[in-house]
Structure formats: structure tokens, C-alpha cells
What we know:
The chain is mainly alpha-helical. It is 64% helix and 6% strand.
Amino acid sequence: MKKSFLAFIRKEFLHIVRDPRTMLIALLIPVVQMVLFGFAISMEVNDVEVMVAAPKITPAIEAKVSQIAHNPYITFKGYIPAADVDKAISTNRTMAVVVFSPDYDITRESQVVVDASNPVTAQSSSGYLTRILADAGLRFQPGVTILYNPRLKSGYNFVPGIMGLIFMLICAMLTSVSIVKEKETGTMEVLLVSPLRPVMIVIAKIIPYFCLAAVDLILILLISRYALDVPLSGSMVALVAISLVYIILALALGLFVSTVVDSQMAALLISGMVFIIPVIMLSGMIFPVENMPVVLQWISNIVPARWYIPAMRKIMIEGLGFGYVCKELVVLIVMAVALTAISIKRFKIRLQ
Length: 352
């Protein structure tokens, strides 16, 4: 029995490796997504064009402007009269203007005027200038201290979210399609006449995707640390443990889909619409859960990524350990155990 089980696992591994489409989805797409979200799709502003308006350019103001111009996020565009501030912004000569007080006193509270036609750019630009000018000795209220991500890098936010998305894609979608394909072509019935029990056959088909997801986890962590410069400052044991639980949960979801549908197209639609979209919309990956209507907040509690992504942020970005992600870990374990039991039971019923 043991030899038959191992032989079946080996057969499934070879079947996946020899399928270029599966390997493309499982290994290449996660890398592309990490690079895309980490570099190309960025919500941070790296080149803020700034001009300065001052009634008189004093040595003290020049010194402060020099500090602003030498900041890597700022492109200094020159001085303009205070009367031309609105015109400079409306004609796209600059994204923001720093207006110094009319009495030439740099210690007085100054003003930052920002083009808000793009709210994200406006918020980022004003945030950068506020911090830079505060560091330059100017009085800005309220004072702001940015913890864990002082440069507001998008990668810090997207990497944990992409991890939740990738594992759901690899585990749930590919697993469901693989098993449904066997049922659709009639080969599953052939497998069931083997000496292995149906549950063992299902587990053997799932193990290769678990291993692929583990490889993806390693690739993601390497890209995050050395390409996106995302700190992995928390407990690696906690990170790996909660990721493996999430992977098992995603595999159980794929198994559950395979008990509901009988065609690969239906499996893809359910995996894409029912699983992937909630990961993006309801998990906090992009939109804060706290800002959603109460009903959607309740619904988000049944989305596994809603618990996985915040746990990854606590571990990777905030540098915390097991003690601070116990709630998320327990919820994911309960979901994984319950869904695995339900899925295996339903799978046996459907096959009989």
C-alpha cells in the first residue's frame, strides 16, 4: 500500500512537471505578480516636482530649500512669486509649491500647496513635504511619525497581499481543475479501482501542489527581501507555519470545488469569482476592512485571506512573532480542519 501511494505521488509529480501550462501558472506567474506589484504598480511618489514661493530669498531660506532639493524624492523646479502659485500648478509646471511666510521668518508656520487632481499623488506629496519640512526645522502641525514603513513603499503593503493571492491561485484553482479534469475525462473511476482508497488518491494528487506552493513561498520571500527590500524582521518560524496552514486551507478549498462541479470551466469560474476576487476586495489587501460597510466586514470574516494577510504584515513588517498572530493562526487552523473534513467527506460521496 505504501509503495503504491508513493508511486502514485511520483506519477502526479511527473504529470505536472510535463505540463508546461501548469508549470507556467504555478511558478512563473507568482514571480511576475511579485515583480509587477512590487515595482510597476506602485502607489508611492518618487519624483515630486516642487517649487518654492518666498517674498525674499534669504540665506536661511536658501539653506532650507537646499535640504528640500537634496531629498531623493524631490525634484526642485525653482522659485516663483507667491502670486503665481495657482498658475504654476494649473499649468502643470509643478506638482506642489512650498510658500514661506511673508516676513521671511523660516521658523514660522509655512504652507504647502499641492495639485490634488490625483488624490493618491496629492496625499503622498503633501506627506513627503510635511515630513521633510518638519525635519528642516519648520513648524508643521500635527507632527507625524511613520512607523515600520517610513518611505511608504508600496511593496510593504502588496507583498503580504500577493502571498495570499498566489497561494489561493496555485492551491485552490489548480487543485480543483486537476481533480475535475480526472472526473471529466472519466479517468478518476479508473484510479478508484486501484488498491488505494479514494482519500489516499485525493491526497496524492494534492501533495504535488503543496510542494509547488512551498517553492512559491521560498521564491516570494527571496524576491521580497532581496529585490523589493521588504524586511523579514519577524519570526520566520511563525511566517512559515501560518503560510503552510493557509496553503492547506487553500488546497481544501480546491478539493471542495471539485465536489461541487463536474467541468474544468466551472471550476475555473468558481475559483476565479468566488475565491480570487474576495481575496482582492475583502481581505484588506488593497482596501482597509475597517472602511467597508458593516455587512461587508462581517462577510470578510469568512475569507481566509482576511486573516492571513494581516498576520503576514505583523510578522514581516512589524517584526512580531507567534504571540501576536495567535488569533489569526487559530482561525485559519479551524477553517483548514473543518473545510478539509467536509471536502473529503463530500468527495467520497460524489465519487460513489
